[in-house]
């Protein structure tokens, strides 16, 4: 079931919506959810990888948004503000996951069946393996890669979301690109998957 | 598609392809849960906003949270998260309780009551229509969960999870020792966590004690004394063993027998492989003795060892594990899949293509509809084309297109068929 957006605010631009949220307009939360929840959920999933139940974190992002929106200095920048909160939430979650891993604890029960993500076993495994490789990078580098390449953000948006300079974001991206390409090419599982997708010149 | 001209794509084609995979399959769509999720946010937000205004959210004998009414505007009552009422004590902005000098009592709209004992630290981390998640950081919490269909309550204490459907019980967690005690007054619960990876059932009249530091799991009757260490102990076959017997008509000697001591358990090989710990799996197999593993290990362990060895490029070990799977568990789906992986192993080890081809053909003969059928036929197509030429490969390409028109090797197959 979809949340029904309220006529009026639903058509408002981000600035008006931000002001309505700050003024605690009773309809604003629903409109903000309808407008931004898919974006937030998508970033969370793409940042954390398949098999993760992102819904609790989506709620966490919006809870923080509703509590912190009065701190927003530029109401026009509501979207960037939400992305920034989402990025912080991802960083917290990745730190928590790493801490659990260091302590030797098993993954949360929220790690779900990957079959819902990709119906093809090879694609499913490739996706899982890809995120296992991303797990090798620090949180900032990983987020830079996810936001820039998987989410398709500009360099300026990436640096804003991460709270770093553009040159720092570029360095992160360069580092991940180089190492990831190396990891992918040396990984037998991914090499197997790639064979069918990229090596069209096997048959000429 | 040209990958390198788009600045928002990695120039490496393999990485670019994986990025495409992630983009295509990790989306933001979740229409079924939208309303429920927003309602949960509203419900969590309501006390937090009150906290911001009044510094403390204290409700005594109050009506159900106003958030529940807001939620009812956007969703049918059947999906509405349970209402929350604090009968005594305080709930902080983040849903935290304590440590306080007096117990805190929380009642949910389905009649469930939670009492957080004095000095305990707990947190309400989520409320749904079916129940709630409570994280216990330290101390003791008592639950009386209302019985109703589909109810789902969880107590999270450290890495432990107590899953409840309808019962009365108490949970105590020692943060420093990471130890857990669960005492059942009625019904049953399932507990999982350290030493209990696959879960253990605890029934009415039982007390479960888990101490990972000592590698110790005990289930004792609540009306009896814990077993004395010098008494004979029953070794359980695994941490998933049920403790149901311990609650039925205890006799004095039986009470002592119900104390179980388990050796410290290690993560399974499968979970280690899933976590990328291939080297750990190989070391574990080496400690046990590879030959012994090949001859006696269960199928799941053999499969995990084969995976770990393949990923770690230990071809001989992988080959031996895969052959053992085929020999000892002939007919199982994993044994059939082992056939395919034997072919892949030869290819990735630059072995004779004809040998790999043989394994693929055997796999296709044994499991024509198997999960790797598309890949096996595709690999066969590539090998035959490379080794014997387009004319010999064309019939295989036709078969591939007939069976897997959208498969990963379909573009190659079409080229071959079109070139005839």
List keywords for this structure.
heterodimer, A: 204 residues, mainly alpha, 66% helix, disordered C terminus, B: 420 residues, alpha+beta, 14-stranded mixed β-sheet, 40% helix, 21% strand, disordered N terminus
SSE inventory with pairings:
The complex is a heterodimer of chains A (204) and B (420).
Chain A: H1 14-22, H2 28-48, H3 55-68, H4 78-102, H5 121-134, H6 139-150, H7 155-162, H8 166-186, H9 188-198
Chain B: H1 13-25, H2 34-54, H3 66-74, E1 84-88, E2 96-97, E3 104-108, E4 113-116, E5 121-127, E6 132-144, E7 153-157, E8 160-164, E9 168-174, E10 179-186, E11 188-193, E12 196-203, E13 206-211, E14 216-221, H4 252-257, H5 269-274, H6 278-288, H7 290-296, H8 299-311, H9 315-328, H10 333-348, H11 353-366, H12 373-388, H13 390-403, H14 410-418
Provide a descriptive summary of the structure in words.
The complex is a heterodimer of chains A (204) and B (420). Chain A is mostly helical and 204 residues long. Chain A contains 9 helices and no strands. Chain A has helices at 14-22, 28-48, 55-68, 78-102, 121-134, 139-150, 155-162, 166-186, 188-198. Chain A starts with 13 loop residues before the first helix and ends in a 6-residue tail after the last helix. Mean pLDDT of chain A is 78; it is low at 1-7, 104-118 and 198-204. With 420 residues, chain B is of the alpha+beta class. In chain B, strands 1, 2, 3, 4, 5, 6, 7, 8, 9, 10, 11, 12, 13 and 14 form a 14-stranded mixed sheet that branches. In chain B, strand 7 (153-157) and strand 8 form a beta hairpin. In chain B, helix 7 (290-296) runs parallel beside helix 9 (315-328), helix 9 runs antiparallel to helix 10 and helix 12 runs antiparallel to helix 13. Chain B is elongated, with a radius of gyration of 29 Å. In chain B, 40% of the residues are buried. Residues 1-5, 50-78 and 224-264 of chain B have low confidence and may be disordered. Chains A and B meet through helix 2, helix 3, helix 5, helix 6 and helix 8 of A and helix 1, helix 2, helix 12 and helix 14 of B.
């Amino acid at each position: 079931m979809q949340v029904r957006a309220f006529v009026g605010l639903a058509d408002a631009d981000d600035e008006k919506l931000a002001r309505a949220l700050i003024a605690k307009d009773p309809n604003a939360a629903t409109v903000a959810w309808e407008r931004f929840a898919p974006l937030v959920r998508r970033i969370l999933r793409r940042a954390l990888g398949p098999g993760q139940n992102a819904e609790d974190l989506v709620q966490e992002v919006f809870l923080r948004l509703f509590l912190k929106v009065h701190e927003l200095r530029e109401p026009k920048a509501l979207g960037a503000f939400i992305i920034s909160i989402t990025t912080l939430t991802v960083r917290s979650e990745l730190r928590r996951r790493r801490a659990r891993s260091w302590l030797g604890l098993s993954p949360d029960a929220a790690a779900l069946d990957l079959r819902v993500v990709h119906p093809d076993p090879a694609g499913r495994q490739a996706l899982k393996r890809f995120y296992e490789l991303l797990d090798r990078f620090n949180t900032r580098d990983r987020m830079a890669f996810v936001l820039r390449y998987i989410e398709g953000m500009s360099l300026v948006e990436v640096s804003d979301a991460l709270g770093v300079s553009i040159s720092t974001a570029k360095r992160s991206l360069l580092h991940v690109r180089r190492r990831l390409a190396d990891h992918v090419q040396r990984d037998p599982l991914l090499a197997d998957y790639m064979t069918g997708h990229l090596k069209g010149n096997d048959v000429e | 598609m040209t990958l390198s001209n788009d600045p928002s794509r990695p120039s490496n084609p393999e990485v670019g392809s994986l990025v495409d995979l992630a983009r295509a399959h990790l989306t933001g769509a979740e229409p079924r849960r939208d309303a429920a999720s927003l309602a949960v946010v509203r419900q969590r937000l309501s006390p937090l906003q009150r906290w911001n205004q009044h510094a403390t959210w204290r409700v005594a004998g109050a009506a159900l949270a106003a958030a529940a009414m807001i939620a009812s505007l956007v969703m049918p009552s059947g999906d509405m998260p349970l209402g929350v009422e604090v009968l005594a004590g305080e709930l902080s902005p983040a849903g935290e309780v304590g440590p306080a000098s007096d117990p805190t009592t929380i009642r949910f709209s389905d009649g469930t009551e939670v009492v957080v004992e004095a000095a305990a630290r707990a947190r309400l981390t989520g409320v749904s229509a079916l129940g709630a998640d409570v994280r216990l950081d330290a101390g003791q919490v008592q639950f009386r969960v209302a019985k109703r269909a589909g109810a789902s309550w969880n107590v999270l204490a450290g890495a432990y999870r107590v899953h409840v459907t309808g019962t009365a019980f108490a949970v105590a967690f020692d943060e420093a020792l990471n130890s857990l005690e669960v005492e059942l007054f009625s019904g049953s619960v399932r507990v999982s966590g350290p030493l209990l990876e696959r879960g253990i059932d605890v029934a009415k009249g039982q007390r479960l004690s888990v101490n990972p530091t000592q590698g110790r799991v005990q289930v004792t009757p609540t009306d009896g004394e814990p077993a004395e260490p010098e008494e004979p102990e029953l070794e359980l076959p695994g941490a998933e063993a049920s403790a149901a017997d311990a609650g039925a008509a205890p006799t004095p000697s039986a009470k002592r027998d119900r104390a179980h001591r388990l050796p410290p358990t290690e993560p399974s090989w499968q979970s280690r492989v899933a976590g990328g710990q291939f080297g750990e799996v190989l070391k574990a197999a080496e400690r046990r003795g590879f030959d012994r593993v090949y001859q006696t290990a269960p199928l799941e362990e053999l499969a995990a060892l084969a995976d770990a060895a393949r990923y770690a490029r230990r071809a001989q070990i992988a080959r031996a594990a895969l052959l053992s799977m085929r020999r000892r568990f002939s007919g199982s789906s994993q044994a059939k899949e082992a056939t395919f992986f034997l072919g892949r192993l030869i290819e990735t080890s630059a072995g004779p293509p004809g040998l790999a081809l043989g394994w693929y053909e055997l796999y296709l003969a044994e499991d024509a509809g198997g999960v790797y059928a598309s890949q096996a036929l595709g690999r066969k197509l590539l090998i035959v084309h490379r080794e014997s030429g387009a004319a010999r490969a064309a019939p295989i390409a036709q078969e591939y297109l007939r069976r897997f028109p959208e498969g990963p090797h379909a573009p190659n197959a079409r080229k071959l068929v079109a070139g005839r």
